[in-house]
Amino acid sequence: MADLMTRQIAFDGLVNGLAIGLIALGIVLVYRSSRVINFAVGNLGVIGAALLPLAVINYGVPFWAALIGALLVGTLAGTIVELAVIRRLFDSARVTVLIATIGVAQACVAAVRALPDVDGAVRASYPVAITSQWEIAGVRVTGAQVCVLVVVPVVAGALTWFLGRTTQGRAVTASAENPNLARTVGISPKIVSTVVWTLAGLLSTLAMILIAGQSGRVAATADLGPNTMVRAMAAAVIAGLTSFRWSMLAGVLIGVLQAAVRFNFVEQTGLVDFLLLGAVVTAVWVRARRDARTDGRSDARAFATGPRPAPIPERLRGIWWIRHLNRLALVVPLLIAVLLPLVVTQASRHLLYGTILAFAICACSLTVLTGWAGQLSLGQMAFAGLGALTTAALTRGVSIDIGADRTIAFQALPFALSALLAALVTAAMAAIVGAGALRVDGMLLAVSTFALGVAAAGYLYRRPFLTDGNASSVPLPRGDLFGLDLSDERNYYYVLLGVLIVVLALIARLRAHGTGRRTIAVRDNPEAAAACTVAPLRTKVTAFALSGAIAGFGGALLAGSVQSVPLTERFFQVSDSLTLVAIVVIGGLGSTVGPVVGSVWVIGLPAFFPGNSLVPIFASSIGLLVLLLYFPGGLTQIGNAARTALLRWAEGRLPVEPAPSTPTPKPERPLRVRERTETPGTPTDAPVLVTRDVSVRYGGNTAVDSVSIQLRPGEILGLIGTNGAGKSTLLNAIGGFAPATGTIELLGRDVARLAPARRAALGLGRTFQAARLFPELTVRETVLVALEARRRSGLLSTALLLPAATRAERHRRTEAADLIDLVGLGRYADSPVAQLSTGTRRIVELANLIALDARVLCLDEPTAGVAQRETEALGPLLLRLRQELDAAMIVIEHDMPFMMSISDRLYCLGAGRVISEGTPEQVRTDPAVIAGYLGTDTRAIDRSGAATGAVRTAAAPGSETESGAGSGPYSDSGSDSDSRSDSDSRSDSDSGSDSGSGSGFGSGARPNPVPAVSHPVPDPVMES
Q1: Reduced 3-state DSSP string for 170-219
Q2: Rounded distance, CA 705 to CA 158, Å?
Q3: Can you give the pTM of this predicted structure?
Q4: Do 908 and 923 meet the contact criterion of CB atoms below 8 Å apart?
Q5: Which of these three, 931, 948, 963, is where a domain ends?
Q6: How far is CA 153 from CA 15, 44, 148, 208, 944, in A?
Q7: Residue 858 pairs with which residues in a beta bridge?
Q8: Which of 21, 578, 637, 658 fits 248 for a cystine, CB–CB 3.0-4.6 Å?
């Protein structure tokens, strides 16, 4: 009998594994084409799968006709979802699209529930193609299982052949690898996306029909279920999200493992889910190590949190109610929250109001993790549940058996203290989970935390030391707090309200200080953040730990509202984690008050309208999609729009004081704003940067091949060469942004094994060709991120309002204001970087280099995207930076006259190798350089001889630039002032700056003001 059962279990596991592998194929298909993890991969097919029994049983449609119709409906559903949702979010961050797929999945389930009921659904069996059963070698085989055994391998083989052997299939892969390059060869990524989502709809419908056929239950089509979903996700992640063959094999192994574990460990409920969590975390860790050795891709698209609130115009800041407009807007909601329990006296309503507040506290954790860090957790309520269970254990006292008849006993603690300690426990757990998943660019944290949520609900919650033997719920008495009886629902509500206010104030303070700025900087541009000495991984893990602490604390308070921790339903399941995502997205990602608004909407509205079945749909799934598509900032974006309209009305109607006509002169300041300490014993004439045999390889492609260069103190070293010669890759290797072999010495120290942030902290400054910086941060906040290199703002010291942290922040802001005034960007200090022109962002990059006080500057095409007039002024500026900052530079540029005019020496690269080096004159006359890069027409370069002398003379002591004239970063030196019409000049850079105010290095800062120039700095414009 044991052998027979073993065979049967193994066969059933094989069939279930094939079904899991089919779902995994859909996940891999979408990911390979768009780098999106599709959480609607199963529920996308529930509509077609639900129509099949409805048509066959209710309306007597023949099975095969109904099957074809169901597959067509499911296929069409995939097309509609792509055109209506995915297409509109095509250029959004991939995490945003992932959230949209969650909304799609919920909307599909809501659509199925709106369909008519199947006649006799309780007794009806799901229709299948083959109704016979057989017994082969003691194994019972059903017709539904035969369908799986036949259909899944055929579909998997056809899909593999399509993507690997056909032109259309290869177009799918090409579109995912490099959309821009795909467009150049005639491949439309949007059309490819439509084709892929259409196929995904077909696969999803087929998978749901096969799964429902095996279960035999008509109701099984209502939802895929988190358990099956996590198994398919695990199979896809184990396969690296790329291989159909390995994802199918992993699905089969998972199915067989599940059958074997359930057969041998009947009492270990959820053990399979826990083992899958370990498999997912291990697979993510392996992928992180692999990506560290290759060229890992990152999602450079902006993470949508909605437009920032418009700053108050300077001329209105003297009006007190406008100056405090944000605070006044919170007065009415706060009064309602305080007075509502006094007006409504039912204890049940107080419980509801408290539940809304507790969910808002839990949702604050996603404001930090998703809104700031751009990382999505789909298991946040798992941390809340573990925090609640830990609190319950600490309040009753815990005894832990350590073996040898020895135990460690912990006495019972008060409820409030237990909740705080539980928050520390969940913070540590979040840091452990995130340490692996956060190493990988993309959305694998969502998969890891989704697996955690399933494992927590099925296995972790039921550990004896947490449950104390309880099967359905664990008691959690509230006790009292400083003499206040917490058993009273109204008292507990006011405690929750006070805690929520403190949590909101905490995250608002952290957002306004270094922790929030660093986290958003890493989210927007991890490479630029690392160049500002901010360690991306440490920053993301810190954000995850903070979010875990808030979730654990909020979970304890949520369980305290019902004075127990439910183990099977109500609060701490995977569906509740998805509810948290809906709360923060609907309320407003990244907004401080967003969790409150979202919790009132998602949790409160259905409770206030219990008899309306449409309200929960619009409060969650449909509302989530609508806001993502049209109001990415959530409901708070609508409030910000009303605030902006009010400010515009006030600016046009209210009397204001006229601004002073003449600015107050400022004293002269040098560029360097802090003293540099030299290392004792360091030779002043030693090279500041040395590379020896540096090579960079991506797979079989060698981008940099044994390059050795030296950079001397105070030298400007130019790197020239064709596109693809390896110039930027060499700078990436020097900065630590590309995996390289060889030796890299910075200021006499070997830095080849150091992370980019550590190299930046040692004195290596870097600008990037795209000059993206941090789109959501303002100019002031961007400079403050760079100033973190001088003194890091601490999380705990900031949160605890320590005087030292307050003084440090005040000093840091003063330094930032000085730097912004120094580079002439005072007008734009509170403008988001995303609204600045390329030239203005270049100025911000230079301000960051000054803030870093870097000794070695690596500038990657500093004139890219900059108008010609500003390019001509850049040469004297770089020479002045070198002189006053005592810095050496490596500059990449394709503008040969510019390079010849500023460089002391040049290296020319070709195919990753150095083909020439020497002075500008030696390199430009080298036959290898002429043949491979410059060509035979050197008339433009011949003009650089005069330019060289002019630039160097302008930068010499006592020259006009040194005395202040034309010293703006992109000021017009006058050499080309008459060569263009006014309209041409305006096309190069907007002339919106105040005439005569000056806005460059030294402008308006010297005793004798510099002459007014037409274009001191580019004016920020909205980028299309």
Answers
A1: HHHHHHHHCHHHHHHCCCCHHHHHHHHHHHHHHHHHHHHHHHHHHHCEHH
A2: 42
A3: 0.84
A4: yes
A5: 963
A6: 11, 21, 8, 16, 67
A7: 766, 890
A8: 21
The Cα 228–Cα 574 span in angstroms is 13
CA dihedral of 193, 198, 203, 208, whole degrees rounded to 10: 120
Answer yes or no: is 776 within a domain. no
579 and 708 in a single domain? The answer is no
Backbone angles phi, psi at 345, to 5 degrees: -100, -5
In a domain, residue 127? The reply is yes
Of the three residues 229, 247, 266, the one that is the final residue of a domain is 266
- Which CATH number covers residue 729? 3.40.50.300
Instruction: Dump pLDDT digits (tens) for 431-472.
Output: 988 887 777 655 788 888 999 999 998 899 988 888 888 888
The alpha carbon of residue 783 and the mean position of all alpha carbons in its chain are separated, in whole angstroms, by 21
Cα 83 to Cα 34, 86, 186: the distances in Å are 14, 6, 20
Residue 500, in any domain of the structure: yes
Cα distance between residue 189 and residue 184, in whole Å:
11
Q: For residues 773 and 831, is the Cβ–Cβ distance under 8 A?
A: no
578 and 491 housed in the same domain: no
Q: What angle do CA 577, 578, 580 make, to 5 degrees?
A: 65
Q: Is the dihedral of CA 114, 118, 123, 129 positive or negative?
A: negative
| DSSP-derived 3-state class of residue 841 | helix
Containing 694, the helix (H) or strand (E) segment is strand 689-698
Could you tell me if 21 and 107 lie in one domain? yes
Distance CA 917, CA 905 (A): 7
Residue 912, sorted as left (phi over 0), alpha (psi -120 to 50) or beta, turns out to be left
What SS3 state is found at 643? Answer: helix
DSSP codes joined into one string, 883-908:
HHHT-EEEEE-S-HHHHHHH-SEEEE
Q: Which residues of 578-597 are buried (b: 16+ CB within 10 A; e: fewer)?
A: bbbbbbbbbbbbbbbbbbbb
- Kindly report the number of other CB atoms within 10 A of residue 348's CB atom: 9
Domain count, the chain: 4
| DSSP annotation of 132 | -
Does 479 share its domain with 592? no
Instruction: Count how many Cα atoms sit within 13 Å of the Cα of residue 65 in the half-sphere of its side chain.
Output: 8
Per-residue pLDDT at 325? 83
The widest CA-to-CA distance across the chain, in whole angstroms, is 101
- Spatial neighbors of 670 by CB under 8 A, at least 6 apart, are 884
Q: Are residues 565 and 578 in the same domain?
A: no
Question: What is the C-alpha to C-alpha distance for residues 787 and 821, in angstroms, rounded to an integer?
Answer: 15
**Residue 283, both tokens:** 């697979």
At position 606, the amino acid (one-letter code) is P
Phi, psi of 404 (to 5 degrees): 55, 40
- Asked whether residue 643 falls in the same domain as residue 710, the answer is no
Q: In sequence order, what DSSP letters do the residues of 246-269 get, joined into one string?
A: HHHHHHHHHHHHHHHHHHH-TT-T
Q: Are residues 950 and 879 in the same domain?
A: yes
Tell me the two tokens of residue 191.
Answer: 């059309």
Quick one: 429 and 553 in the same domain? Answer: yes
DSSP-assigned beta bridge partners for residue 743: 692
Q: Is residue 582 part of a domain?
A: yes
pLDDT in tens, 896-941: 888 888 889 999 998 889 998 999 888 888 888 887 776 655 554 5
Q: Token pair 């010293």 is at which residue? A: 967
Helices H, strands E: what count in the chain? Answer: 42, 18
What domain range is 619 assigned to? 574-647
**Cβ distance 387 to 425 under 8 Å?**
yes
Q: Roughly how many angstroms between the first and final C-alpha of the chain, as a whole number? A: 71
Residue 183 belongs to domain with CATH number: 1.10.3470
Question: Which residues 6+ apart lie within 8 Å of 618 measured at CB?
Answer: none
CA 782, 783, 787, 793 torsion-angle sign: negative
Min mean pLDDT across 312-321, 582-591, 779-788, 804-813 is at 312-321
- Residue whose pair of structure tokens reads 């899944």 in the numeric block: 152
